[in-house]
Amino acid sequence: DAVVEALQDIRDGIHGWARPTWVSDTKLLWAVQLVDAARRHLGVPESAILHAARGRVNRLWVRKVLALSSHCADSPKETEMRLMCTALMKDPRLVCAAEWAPLCSKLRSAGLVFTEQVPLFDGDRLITTFDLALADLKIALMYDGEHHLSRSQRDKDFGISLECQLQGWTVIRVS
Predict the structure, then answer these.
(1) Gap between the Cα atoms of 15 and 120, Å rounded
(2) Cβ–Cβ under 8 Å, residues 172 and 141
(3) Residue 95 gets which letter from DSSP?
(4) Three-state DSSP class for 24?
(5) pTM summary value
(6) Residue 91, CB-side half-sphere exposure with 13 Å CA sphere
(7) Of all helices (H) and strands (E), which one includes residue 123?
(8) Interhelix angle for 76-89 vs 26-42, to 10°?
(9) For the segment 2-31, what is each residue's pLDDT rounded down to a tens digit?
């Protein structure tokens, strides 16, 4: 019920937060970020959200939010990064900038698929888990939040990136 009440507030314009310039539907982004967090950190299942939303929030909109949602995103910025990749690869309607259209068209025709939360091992030892990866191409995206700016974390991240490169991966860190 609390998640659906928050969705109502987002849809009604009562609550919101920083708006990225690339997104065409800010309320949709915010709703997906909220639902991602509820699914990942609170274990709220899609079915519970659908059930609680019945008669309270537009069903088609809630279904669109759930279709874009993932239980794997660790942060709102990871959600934003995933949705940007989704826009580029599958659904350019998420993007408001018309100049993205040719790039979206080229990427969609390449048939690339991002996978979330891809672990990388060295034998039995976990090196890292990529936020998003084009596994066939060994290209990974990682969102680095503010805590990645500390010297100790940067040193740790450098070591992780080096190990990934030694296994043939290209790691793109976004902050």
Answers:
(1) 38
(2) yes
(3) B
(4) coil
(5) 0.83
(6) 12
(7) none
(8) 120
(9) 999 999 999 999 999 988 888 888 999 999
Note the pLDDT tens digit of each residue in 38-84.
Answer: 999 999 999 999 999 999 999 999 999 999 999 998 889 899 999 88
Element at 137 (helix H, strand E) = none
pLDDT, tens only, 80-113: 999 888 888 776 667 666 677 777 777 778 888 8
In angstroms, the CA 174 to CA 168 distance is 19
* Rounded CA separation 70/5 (Å): 19
State the Cα–Cα distance between residues 72 and 59, nearest whole angstrom. Answer: 23
Task: Output the CA–CA distances (angstroms, integers) from residue 51 to 4, 68, 137, 160, 175, in the order listed.
Answer: 10, 18, 40, 42, 36
Question: Nearest CA to 140 among 129, 153, 125?
Answer: 129
Whether 134 and 168 have beta carbons less than 8 Å apart is answered as no
Rounded Cα distance between 8 and 31, Å, is 9
Q: What order do you get walking across the sheet with 170-174 strand by strand?
A: 115-122, 125-134, 139-143, 170-174
3-state secondary structure of 57: coil
CB 65, CB 28: distance < 8 Å: yes
The number of C-alpha atoms within 13 Å of 26 and in the hemisphere containing its C-beta is 10
